[in-house]
Design goal:
Length: 300
């Protein structure tokens, strides 16, 4: 029998960034940690999970737990399931707010399973995480850190590349007290969209990559979206109203991921202006996380 332990740290992510639906993601300086101990070759025992912080008291503590499901899926692809699994989760990412908590849980499980079997390269981890999450934008940024552009190749496997972010891009998030699940928010999207809207978003998404990297002064124009935000308004009217109010003041505000958090891609100078309009919201000035998922330690 063999036993190994790893500790994996995963960042929050804001996906879409306005026009980059299911493609763009930005890793943020807010993190979950999961410590996983796995035994191989012993008698099969039930999984043990403890949770501190966000999700404590609400997430299931058995095989339905999202990190456990992701570990199981990754171990299945790697060819061997552990006979025993023990997890200690310390969560800072709020759930169901559009800050990538599910992506962080999935990446945490996939990276932990790979580290527990001696794999440290991220090569196949992105595709594995995308197969669980169902869209590659958050998992790419969570895995790689920074600003990422994700896509699926012709065989359907997720791929991603990182783009450097201009130092003046200081993310501010306005987190509401209510949740909207990504599943519900995706259910509001239409099957098809007008060609003019698709064309407008393609142009703005291309501009956004340039604005985030080199021209923050173009961020207001670059963050305009016609593909998802207004379709989701019925599930989060307060979010849509805050985005509209912030944009009217010249601030580059978008719905973070599938919402309901609002992300403002401005400079640090914008914080007081955001706070003035976002009364009652939990307004946090964050930084871009440049590390992505990190294996803090691994013991065999
Ligand atoms: N650290 C975690 N541990 C277990 N389950 C989690 C964790 N993070 C997220 N989840 C699951 O994912 C759900 C939230 O996912 P989702 O609706 O995609 O919102 P978001 O990813 O924007 O926070 C939670 O309600 C919970 O079921
Ligand atoms: N592109 C996805 C992003 C979902 O992000 P999350 O943080 O809300 O899970 C979408 O817009 O549905």
């Amino acid at each position: 029998m063999s036993t190994a332990t790893v500790l994996v740290r995963t960042p929050a992510t804001s996906a879409n960034l306005g026009p980059g639906f299911d493609a763009l993601g930005l890793a943020l300086s807010l993190h979950d940690e999961v410590e996983v101990t796995a035994e191989f070759g012993g008698p099969a025992t039930p999984v043990e999970v403890t949770v501190d912080g966000e999700g404590a008291g609400s997430v299931p503590l058995d095989e339905r737990h999202l990190v456990v499901r992701s570990l199981r899926a990754a171990f299945a692809e790697l060819g061997e399931q552990p006979s025993a699994l023990r997890l200690r989760c310390r969560n800072a990412l709020p759930h169901g707010r559009g800050l990538g908590s599910s992506a962080a849980a999935i990446v945490g499980g996939v990276v932990a399973a790979r580290a527990l079997t001696g794999l440290t390269a991220h090569d196949d981890a992105l595709a594995a995480a995308d197969r669980i999450e169902g869209h590659p934008d958050n998992v790419a940024a969570c895995l790689l850190g920074g600003l990422t552009v994700a896509w699926r190749d012709d065989a359907g496997a997720a791929r991603a590349t990182r783009v450097d972010v201009h130092p003046d891009v200081a993310p501010v998030v306005c987190v509401p007290s209510f949740e909207v699940s990504t599943e519900k928010a995706r259910g509001l999207l239409p099957e098809t969209v007008p060609h003019a809207d698709a064309a407008a978003n393609a142009g703005r998404a291309a501009l956004l990559v340039h604005a985030l990297g080199k021209r923050p002064d173009l961020l207001l124009d670059a963050t305009a979206d016609r593909l998802h935000q207004h379709y989701r308004e019925p599930a989060m009217p307060a979010t849509y109203a805050l985005v509209t109010a912030l944009r009217a003041q010249g601030l580059a505000a978008v719905v973070s991921g599938a919402g309901p958090t609002v992300l403002v891609l401005g400079g640090g100078d914008d914080l007081s202006r955001v706070e003035a309009l976002a009364e009652g919201w939990d307004v946090r000035a964050l930084q871009v996380d440049t590390q992505g998922a990190v294996v803090e330690f691994a013991t065999a």
